[in-house]
Amino acid sequence: MSRLIVISNRVNPPLEQGGGAVGGLAMALAAALREYSGVWFGWSGQTTDHYTGQIAIQRVGGVTVATVDLDEQDRLEYYNGYANKTLWPLFHYRIDLTAYERSFDAGYARVNRRFAETVRPLIEPDDFVWVHDYHLIPLANELRKLGLRNRIGFFLHIPWPARRLLTTLPKHRELVEALFAYDLVGFQTEDSLTAFEDYVIKEGGGTVGPTRVAKAFGKTTQLGAFPIGLDADHFAKAAESPEGQRQLARMKESLAGRQMIVGVDRLDYSKGLEERFLAYEQFLADNPDQREKVFLLQIATPSRDEVEAYQDIRGRLDAVAGRINGEFASVDWVPIRYVNRTYRRDELAGIYRAARIGLVTPLRDGMNLVAKEYVAAQDPDDPGVLILSKFAGAAAQLSEALIVNPFGREDVSEAIRKGLAMTREERLARWRPLMDNVTTQDVTAWRDGFVAALRATGAPSEQQVAG
């Protein structure tokens, strides 16, 4: 059987099945690679004085990983720069936070070229190559320049922006053209896929056929939507594990007869945390009878601390949470428990199960696996209620959740009120189809769907290989 070569910015497989931080790319790819022989290649997260391209290979969590160190200039220009100050905010519709600097663009191109040169010797003729996310859009083009004829697929984990937003990016045409070096380009949702098709047709002068074959820039690539899932059965079992049950018991004790709303997010402006706090404040103002009967536990894991926008959001959240607690708290009740730390997955499963409401309200998100984790962790006899942003990719699949506009405080406030008051019968009626979707459209279905589509594309064209 052909091997699967996975390439992503970071290589971070979980050390053990039950451990690690909240799921996402790491958990999904580790689950995929346990089923396929092959290698996961990417940046180690470490920097060195001078880039050498030396590869470190080891076996971690049942996965063969190959990592390379970057130099400090790479980290600043490629990672902190173009990836996280340019593409991330732009693709999440935050053009006000998007930074354009020539050095960022140069660093992005340089690291993608270095990745290609470093990983090329690891790739055997029959291997399938699966490249992940916005950090590595030009990678296939660089591999083609080195003569690689293997089938190469690309999957974007974040949203693809609307055409008029993307055209604000200098060299936007070159970025899109680079994607046509792939045999398959996958997106989380139909919304992102149609936004890409709109660009191909109206800016690239190309065409998209009824089978989603796109032709532009003298090249052809297959397009598709492949909504990512999680290892649902394993996550459900994590809630029943000894550590999950210990965390559940601990949370129930701390409830003191109250109901809990839980939010679990990386500390990022795209997650809508400030808007969430303000909507919860609106709920407390609108429903004074609910004060001291409910609290919000917000777990927000810090990330990208060197990027100014992230420092800013952390400061604002500290201030908003403090103000709300100062206004509404009593001697034995705090309305917001705000925690900046990482929890193991089995611990999170217990926390999710203790919560009457899972509050998942990003302003823009490719998918959001926290929503699916919350569903998977629920007690089948007494499940909680998922409140989900209409702008999360998961909303297209999890329509039985209470779907809200995260920009509307009253909308979210009313959903909280409804969720807390919802009968067990209605909660069961909503949860069962949610759980069915999470279980059937899991990480295995995502993986198999993408790999099957990549296999079906056939050999790359001469134009793709020529770059």
Structure description:
It contains 17 helices and 16 strands. With 467 residues, the chain is α/β, with parallel strands linked by helices. It folds into two domains: 4-229 and 444-466, Glycogen Phosphorylase B (Rossmann fold, 3-Layer(aba) Sandwich); 232-440, Glycogen Phosphorylase B (Rossmann fold), CATH 3.40.50. Mean pLDDT is 93; it is low at 16-22.
Task: Give the topology, please.
Elements: E1 4-10, H1 25-33, E2 38-48, E3 55-60, E4 63-71, H2 72-91, H3 102-119, E5 128-132, H4 139-145, E6 152-155, H5 163-166, H6 172-179, E7 184-187, H7 190-202, E8 207-208, E9 213-216, E10 219-225, H8 232-240, H9 242-255, E11 259-266, H10 273-286, E12 294-301, H11 308-328, E13 336-339, H12 345-354, E14 357-360, H13 369-376, E15 385-389, E16 402-404, H14 409-421, H15 424-440, H16 443-455, H17 462-466
Parallel strand pairs: 1-2, 1-5, 2-4, 5-6, 6-7, 7-10, 11-12, 11-14, 12-13, 14-15, 15-16
Antiparallel strand pairs: 3-4, 8-9, 9-10
Helix pairs in contact: 2-3, 3-4, 8-12, 9-12, 10-11, 10-14, 13-15
